[in-house]
Amino acid sequence: NAGVTQTPKFQVLKTGQSMTLQCAQDMNHEYMSWYRQDPGMGLRLIHYSVGAGITDQGEVPNGYNVSRSTTEDFPLRLLSAAPSQTSVYFCASLNWGETNEKLFFGSGTQLSVL
Amino acid sequence: GDSVTQMEGPVTLSEEAFLTINCTYTATGYPSLFWYVQYPGEGLQLLLKATKADDKGSNKGFEATYRKETTSFHLEKGSVQVSDSAVYFCALSEGSSASKIIFGSGTRLSIRP
Questions:
Q1: Closest chain A residue to B105, measured at CA
Q2: Which residues on adjacent β-strands are paired with residue A110?
């Protein structure tokens, strides 16, 4: 099925470890983004991209890096994981030019940092 | 800045009960308002939307009316089903950029058979 695919679904890290959360979409969407979801808080935007080679910071970018070398992929990198990064992460994509409510979300990655 | 506040959960109801999930917002302009739903193990998906005051969004038996005077967008359904068990997110957006969408904290709804 077409859509947004996130891997892994679950991950446990130790403080200081690095890892990459993968996000891929097969809808040829220009816009892709990463959110984190924490208890009692809404989804908060980490980074977003409006096309290959273009990225920008969202509300909570610190501790995360992104790159967009292809239209399909938008990986999120944690260079040195911290317990404060324990969260559920969602990737989303949108076809540029459409109204913003047509965001397509992945099913999420649950990350625990010990 | 803009914000969205929705009722805390979890909300537990019996099948066929009436549902209301409250949502209020703060915005400087005239935002579009949305309800997203997240079923277990899945990503968020748009449930309904309203783009201007007094608009009513509806989908799958759910309704919400954009009330500018009370800055609210409460989600309602007349008779819930077990399959409605999910987490519901209220959200707003000012402007046309997806990067400007602001989400509420989500309300978990559980329906008992």
A1: A42
A2: A10, A88
B40 touches chain A (CB under 8 A): no
Measured from the Cβ of residue A90, the count of other Cβ atoms closer than 10 Å reads 24
Low-confidence ranges of chain A (pLDDT < 50): none
More confident residue, B101 or A112: A112
* CA–CA min distance B76, chain A (Å): 20
Burial of A80 (0-12, 13-18, 19+ CB in 10 A): exposed
DSSP assignment of B71-110, as one string?
Answer: TB--EEESS--GGG-EEEEEEEE-SS-GGGEEE---EEEE
Question: B92 pairs with which residues across the strands?
Answer: B33, B102
- CA A23/CA A90 separation, integer angstroms: 9
- What is the tens place of the pLDDT at every residue in B28-52? 888 889 999 999 878 889 999 998 8
Q: How confident is the model at residue B43, as a pLDDT?
A: 83
CA B97 to chain centre: 20
The length of chain A in residues reads: 114
Structure token digits, residue B113: 């058979």
Q: What are the tens digits of pLDDT across the range A15-25?
A: 999 999 999 99
Nearest residue, CB atoms, A100 vs list B4, B38, B93: B93
The span from the CA of B23 to the CA of B34, in Å, is 10
Nearest-angstrom CA–CA distance, A103 and A86: 24
